[in-house]
Each structure stands twice: as structure tokens, then as C-alpha cells.
Amino acid sequence: MRESVRVDAETPILEAERVSLRFGGVRALTDVSFAVRRGEIFSIIGPNGAGKTSMVNCVSGRYRPTEGRILFEGRDITRMPTRRRAALGIGRTFQNLALFGHMTVLDNIMVGRHHLLRSGFLRGMVYWLGGAQREEIAHRREVEEIIDFLEIQHVRKAVAGQLPYGLRKRVELARAVALRPKLILLDEPMAGMNLEEKEDMARYILDLNEEWGMTVLMIEHDMGVVMDISQRVMVLDFGRKIAEGPPEAVLADEHVKRAYLGEADEAVSEPEEAVA
């Protein structure tokens, strides 16, 4: 029986309902609920080890919640594999760069479109006779548009692993955008960047949201960026939600102030790939 999916203008694109996540006896998330509205930039903030990346990993399918559920466009995706979530329209970048360092920038971005390729192995065998060639040309046009948008034309044939850090972050964003996601998950897109690079990245994120129609769920430590580009913010501390709302109201909250001024180093420790 086909699953019923409720999708309308009033339905949040993403909902997390009482999500908890444990690693053995360690609680990374406890009873976290929130909703991301279609078309907004929604940021998750909090001290180191607060569970931010763990939450994004639950959304992307990297982790499966111990309790609770996650809905995307009204569909329960809690147990859905990562590749199926990508096919539905969820793309992401990583806190630690996950590029193929030995491949060119162009090839890295092409990898981001593999979920959209319809041509299978047998059609690939007759590449020059069938539709696979035409399909690849169309995908390359899309990739070139993304390369132009992110202003990385000058490195399109460069080996990704040899690029400066700021450019590699831009290439990682390009690969996520190549999927043409409805919802893009950005895990600390500004980390390690200088002021000029941060300003450029903020502009790209705003354009993806406003001109390309992508809803953005972002983890970010730079409060200036969060205040400037987010419509709403959620704060996590020790794996629990302590505040949610417009940036100005959230950052004025006394609980939030205590979380940022407290002993962040004592926060719950997560596996290395989950620490935000």
C-alpha cells in the first residue's frame, strides 16, 4: 500500500518529533522537537558537544534516532536510507570536508548528481549509441551553471585536494547544490574561513535560498552570520533544546547566555564525526 504523504503550503518541509539519540550509555540528543518552514534559513547553534551535528546526521540518515521520528514533506523518513533521502531532495555538506581529494573540482561536483542519473550500466555500455551521452551533456550544463554561480571557474579542472581550504569549502557546497535539493543541510559552512570568505559564503547561501528556492538548515558558530541571514534559530545544550525563535530573541534569552558562558568543555562527548 502506498504511503500517504501530506504536502501543502502550510506543511513544514522538515519536522523532528521528540528525537533522542544514544551511543551506548551516552545521550547525544534528548527529546528534541522542531520544524523547519519551507523557504527559510533555520540555524542550529549551541556550545561544542551540544548535539548539533548529531541532529543533522539524524536528518540526513547518517544516524538513526533511538527514539522519535523525522518527517520530510510529511513523509516519515526516520528509517529511510541516506540515498533515498537524497533522492527525495535532501543534500548536505560536512563539518570536516568530504571531497575526493584526488579528483578534479568538476568531477567532484558531478558526483553530487549521481542520484539524478537515469542511465544504468547497460545503457552506459552503449554510451555513444543511446541516451546516456545526451544525459551526461545535460548534467554537465547543470554543473557548469553551479560552477559559475559559486565563482570557481578558474579551478574547475584543478585537483580538489590541492586547493586552499576556503575554495575546498566552496567546492563541497557546489557538490551538495548539484543534487538540486529542496532542503540543504550546511554543517559549519564558515568554519576556518577569513572574513572575506565568510562574506562570500553568506552571500551564496542567501542566493541559494532566495533565488534557487532551497530551504536551508545550518549549523554555525559565527553569531554575526547567524544573526544576519537566519529567520529562526534553535539552541541545543547537552543534547536538549533550550530555546527556539527569531535570532534576536533567542540570543537575548538568559538560558542561552548561560549555555554560552558556562563550561562548554564539560558537554556530552560524542563520536568524533558527530561532535559539532
Automatic annotation (TrEMBL):
Keyword Amino-acid biosynthesis among UniProt keywords: no
GO cellular component, one term: plasma membrane
Endpoints of the signal sequence: none
Keywords of the record: ATP-binding, Nucleotide-binding, Transport
One of the record's GO molecular function terms: ATP hydrolysis activity
Domain of life: Bacteria
UniProt cross-references to PANTHER family, sorted A to Z: ABC TRANSPORTER ATP-BINDING PROTEIN (PTHR45772:SF1), CONSERVED COMPONENT OF ABC TRANSPORTER FOR NATURAL AMINO ACIDS-RELATED (PTHR45772)
Protein name: ABC transporter ATP-binding protein
Species this chain originates from: Caldovatus sediminis
